[in-house]
């Protein structure tokens, strides 16, 4: 890790932000003692102490710019952990704002319409019209919530996040990963974006704020219309009234954001990763981004030993919170 990763940034203006910087420095120091598996280390870079994808399309400058970016008044920020329904939420928001128009292609969504700023860069925000909506995947500890913006957060059962993230990561880096090696890194918090439970807890601690809306993947699956309406109301009363007043638009949004519809009509195109992980003349290929879109795949896919290991880790992180009942039930006792 370079020394400049620990240099203070010039936009620190409050005591709270100073505390946040010190937290980042501490996390960076602790991560210097963390170890990933030999198979996965080459795909991870540490930026400000945060494990991030070491891929040609995740340049360090974009990552640091994203961390330092201060939102403008009225910005709407999707800020969830990878593979928790974050991209699905992007498409739902796009559909609400466009009143159910045709789905954009994935690359247009994450670079032009609702930019994924660690990848697209903050310059992509200059072309946005109000309401400006963009996405990052950092925890609230890394990018604190500000009063002048709105924040959308979605989370998911950890077993399903783990198995979805495993398949996605293996597909992106185009190498065969073992689930055990991936799980080790995931539980140590040394895979991309760090520990999942810490990420979730950082946002749930802010969930009572008026400018934060927290959704669950499971509720979005089982109560789609109600959750879409709740999301529309959070985005603005005019969007809520539009969907309540014209059920045909709401039905179209529900149809367009069904998993099978998206899998059929939206292509995820990613650069081909060169064997030396260099960025020269990257070719493109289709990635299986929309894999299953179900609840409970993690329990079906992991062995009892793997499930036990995951649940022990989760229990150590969320003991005494309402998530313990939700995710672990009687198993926490």
Automatic annotation (TrEMBL):
Give a single Pfam family match.
Sulfotransfer_1
Annotated keywords: Transferase
Positions of the Sulfotransferase domain: 73-321
Keyword Transferase on entry: yes
Example of a GO MF term: sulfotransferase activity
**Hey, which family's this protein in?**
Belongs to the sulfotransferase 1 family.
State what protein this is by name. Sulfotransferase domain-containing protein
């Amino acid at each position: 890790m370079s020394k400049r990763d620990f240099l203070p940034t010039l936009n620190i203006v409050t005591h709270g932000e100073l505390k946040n910087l010190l937290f980042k420095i501490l996390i960076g120091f602790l991560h210097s003692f963390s170890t990933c598996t030999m198979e996965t280390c080459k795909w991870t870079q540490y930026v400000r102490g945060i494990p991030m994808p070491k891929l040609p399309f995740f340049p360090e400058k974009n990552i640091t710019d994203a961390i330092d970016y201060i939102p403008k008044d009225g910005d709407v920020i999707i800020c969830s952990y990878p593979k928790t329904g974050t991209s699905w939420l992007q498409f739902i928001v796009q559909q609400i704002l466009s009143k159910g128009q045709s789905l954009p292609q994935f690359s247009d969504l994450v670079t032009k319409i609702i930019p994924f700023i660690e990848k697209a860069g903050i310059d992509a925000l200059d072309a946005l019209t109000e309401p400006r909506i963009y996405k990052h995947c950092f925890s609230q500890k890394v990018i604190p919530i500000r009063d002048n913006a709105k924040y959308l957060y979605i989370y998911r059962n950890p077993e399903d996040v783990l198995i979805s993230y495993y398949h996605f990561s293996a597909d992106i880096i185009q190498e065969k990963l073992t689930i055990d090696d991936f799980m080790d890194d995931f539980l140590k918090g040394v895979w991309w974006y760090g520990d999942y439970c810490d990420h979730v807890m950082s946002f749930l601690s802010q969930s009572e704020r008026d400018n934060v809306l927290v959704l669950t993947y499971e509720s979005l699956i089982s109560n789609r219309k109600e959750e879409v309406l709740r999301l529309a109301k959070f985005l603005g009363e005019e969007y809520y009234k539009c969907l309540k007043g014209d059920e045909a638009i709401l039905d179209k949004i529900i149809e367009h954001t069904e998993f099978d519809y998206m899998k059929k009509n939206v292509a995820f195109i990613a650069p081909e990763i060169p064997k030396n992980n260099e960025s020269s003349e990257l070719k493109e290929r289709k990635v299986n981004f929309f894999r299953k879109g179900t609840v409970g795949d993690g329990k079906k896919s992991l062995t009892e030993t793997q499930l036990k290991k995951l649940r022990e880790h989760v229990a150590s992180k969320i003991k005494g919170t309402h998530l313990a009942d939700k995710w672990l039930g009687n198993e926490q006792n």
